[in-house]
Amino acid sequence: MRILLVEDNERLAEAISENLTAAGFAIDHVARGEDALTVTADQQYDAIILDLGLPDIDGMDVLKALRDKKNAVPVLMLTARDQLSDKIEGLNKGADDYMVKPFETDELIARLNALLRRPVQAVSEIITVGNLSFNTTNRQAMARDKILELSKRETDLLEQMLRSLGKIVSKKSIEMRLYSYDDKGSVNSVEVLVHRLRKKLESYDAGFDIHTLRGIGYMIMDPVNDAPAD
To answer: Which CATH number fits domain 126-220: 3.40.50.1820, 1.10.510.10, 1.10.10.10, 3.40.109.10?
Structure first.
């Protein structure tokens, strides 16, 4: 999962980034509101952690600009403002959660995971394709009563593909979704990742394959209908 952290306090940003990276997230960090609006115009994020006290424009204005552009990405606000009125304002402007500084990183991670379990396009908690079932809450995949032993990145790829069942997922979208600015992926690294996941799906008899559309991307077909989903 790729997260945008918008925080101008470098020490705090570094600490948050380190902890979230250790928890398996891909983190991009910017310190200014304008930079946040610039990168979100080109990159799709799974969630945004947004500080309110930014040096150029207020975090509330960043949030409003995102929502005005119909960007429904989950936003968790960070602030030193502990007044109830501030919290209500943030939630009314489209924030999904709100944390007051100082906070425990474990709680931040727990709240972030809770937001990520509530995707913009709602899907069933359990996605079932072929012989495989994927639990979007604990992000565990099972096939024929066996838990698939997948790396964090393989799990991310599997979830991205399952949520796009019957639709083409480009190599670029995989690269941008799974890798941060500081951990650049490549066409080759995506191909290697897809190959590893494909072999594991085969070894566990998942009942479907990841199809390669040369020069375009990848797709998981619906094995029941053997046709793209609507």
So the answer is: 1.10.10.10
